[in-house]
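forwarding from the other thread:

> can someone predict this with flavin-adenine dinucleotide?

sure thing
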Amino acid sequence: MTPPVVVNSMRPLHIGIAGAGLAGRCLAWRLARAGHRVTLLDSRQRDALDTAAMVAAAMLSPLAELAVSDAVVFALGKRSMELWPQWIAELHAGHPSPDAQPVYFRQQGTLVVAHAPDQSSMSHFTRLLQHKLPASHRDQVQALDAAAVAALEPALAGRFHSGLYLQGEGQLANDQWMAALALELDRLGVVWQEGVTVHTLEAQRIRGTAGSGELDITVDLVVDARGFGSKHLLNDLRGVRGEVLRVSCPGVVLQRPVRLMHPRYMLYVAPRPDHQFVVGATELESEDTGAVTLRSMLELGSALYSLHPAFGEARLERLSAALRPALDNDRPACLLQDGVWHINGLYRHGYLCAPALVDSLIQKIQETHP
Ligand SMILES: Cc1cc2nc3c(=O)[nH]c(=O)nc-3n(C[C@H](O)[C@H](O)[C@H](O)COP(=O)(O)OP(=O)(O)OC[C@H]3O[C@@H](n4cnc5c(N)ncnc54)[C@H](O)[C@@H]3O)c2cc1C
């Protein structure tokens, strides 16, 4: 196992971070708890719901994602799966107040199923995984018969002849994680300026607009974590639209995320506390930031209904859309460009990769600022 990154040996710096989404917020936390002075700037309010970080399903799926990614993402995901429980424990230890909401985190694997006419989608997915997975991880993909599917998820008993179990995969409630981090950043004294649109980044200077005023700050080091908001600076950055439904449905109980294979789309249903489910997600090569379309709602909704008819009574709590920030190779990256660090390209596996990626950025910063 890779040893944890020790950042305390760095001299304390004043670090300015543009963007308080998933990457910016995680990085601010790790730097602040290591003793650095952090200023965090974001154009939105901290509880805005329209960022990729807040729209995401936050499934932690190194195995399932390997079917659509590569060994780099798999390695980051594998390392992050070790770090997530530590990070969550550290966050809870940081603010033991009874008001602080515990972050829902589960690591009970993923169930993959397909309806009988769609078995070829399932076979293809299985072969792809077996082909791409390192031999040492192949036993984490287990074929299930109908009885084993029913034993794992009693709600799905009798509905599927077979399935796959992806052992060790997890999920967390992203809204709880983002809210808990915000509380902790306040406690650690991070200066967080909301409503600041950053427009210019230099090696030690950040400029932006706040309402009708201009903001101009000098720091020791600048990190750009604006996700798709950095498109004008990173040539190969694109937005990939994703839409999700959040529903509540006391009539169905699932223990773990369920993926439904289908020739046109891959549906996932991630259970959350209080009978809620995140249902997603569309994956459209489009930078449209408009509201969820009727077509997407119908496709996600009918796939959900086909998983279990009791979902027909689900209440729609929220429909949301956001752009996943992706680089041409679809891998996350930490890049130094003109003296400014960029953490970007988290695409569809930001939660999966964030802990390992943030640690690796801190390590790189440490090498350049010993
Ligand atoms: C539908 C959907 C489902 C997903 N599901 C999963 C999943 O199951 N598992 C998983 O691992 N990942 C998932 N993801 C991916 C994950 O959400 C992203 O990879 C991650 O949120 C990207 O993090 P980020 O910090 O780069 O960008 P963001 O989270 O978008 O944050 C960027 C921040 O920068 C701010 N900003 C932008 N421009 C400016 C500016 N000019 N000035 C100041 N601030 C600015 C924004 O307000 C925002 O707060 C999903 C994403 C989507 C959209």
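The CA atoms of residues 67 and 127 lie 9 Å apart. thats all i got for now
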